[in-house]
Amino acid sequence: MAGAPRYDATTCWRDLERFNEGVSIDTFREWAAPLLASRDPLVRMYLKERLTELIGNDAGRASQVLEWTRDAGPKEFKVFAMALKDSEAVHLPEVSRKMLELGMDVALEPERRAGVLSSLDTQKQLSPDALGKLADFAKDPASGEAGWAAARTIARVMKNDHERSANAAPYLDKLLSIGTQSLDEHVRYMALSTPMETAPVLDASATDGFAKVLTTEGSPDGRGAAAHNLSLSADRAKVLETFARAFEPEQDVCVRWSLFRFSARAAGKDALPVMANMALVDPRFQPTYQDFERIYASGVLDFERVWLALADQDPYGCLHRD
């Protein structure tokens, strides 16, 4: 294009200033194309940040960039999607709605749909309609990689909303529905494990839901994640009862280790009788039980301090799965 600066793989940062000063939203794509040939990730990060600035809080500009993602090359797509994700405009209802619609578009390949849906994970909250659509899409056997991204987006927005308003219940409900209904093990695990990052206190409904996972989920990793989440339930007595009941029929040692240690996280010193019985059922846990008993007897009660005081935090070789 006449007047556009020329770049090659050796472009230096001094030359990039010309791009910074002269580019507009209408010339960005053409001017950025040569720079995308650079193997320098800092150049691509610069392009992302500059495009984020150009989008600003303008719904029209955001929609324009969103349209670019339909036919963009792989490097272009990443820059466009990341710029949208970090822009102010992504929080405008009309923009987020268009992004959700594009992410559901069956005409796009799964990787591109996944990228668009992932760009929604900076939302402050999700409307009931958007939450329902994402959850239904994640459960769809045909959604593939994009379904996994939809579940992750729900979890990440849950974290945003929970930090802002302590609101997690509607998100947990949808994640549980994905975690129990999706036919894809990877999608189920994403839905079951990501609440651990937010660590919300579970209400009665969520407690019942994750307790059911302990007896119905085929993946040991999914059952371990459920145990982790249950350790933050408001109903400690019910969790201890659930863990005690689930321990004996459980055959995976790493899931048993989750049930054992998260009993202590759920109920502290009061969990020792349940943990003692677990160690009787599975003698491999006897040395670890004695370690917990010793630490509690010393007066340490906070679970994080108890955990750090353990002689061995990975006695069964399970940390690679956590």
* Distance N to C terminus: 52 Å
Q: Main sheet?
A: none
Helical element count? 19
- Rough shape? elongated
How does the helix and strand content classify structurally? mainly alpha
The helical percent reads 55-70%
Describe the oligomeric state of these chains in a short phrase. Answer: single chain
Using only C-alpha atoms, the radius of gyration works out to 24 Å
By DSSP, the count of extended strands is 0
Low-confidence stretches: 1-12
Q: Average the pLDDT over all residues and give the rounded result.
A: 91
SSE order, one letter for each helix or strand: HHHHHHHHHHHHHHHHHHH
Beta-strand proportion: under 5%
3D structure, described in words:
- The chain is mainly α and 322 residues long.
- Among the domains are: 36-107, no CATH class; 222-322, no CATH class.
- The chain has helices spanning 13-22, 28-35, 41-55, 59-68, 74-86, 93-103, 110-118, 128-139, 144-165, 169-181, 185-193, 195-198, 204-216, 220-230, 236-247, 253-267, 272-281, 286-297, 303-309.
- α5 runs parallel beside α7, α9 (144-165) runs parallel beside α11 (185-193) and α15 runs antiparallel to α16.
- It starts with 12 loop residues before the first helix and ends in a 13-residue tail after the last helix.
- Mean pLDDT is 91; it is low at 1-12.
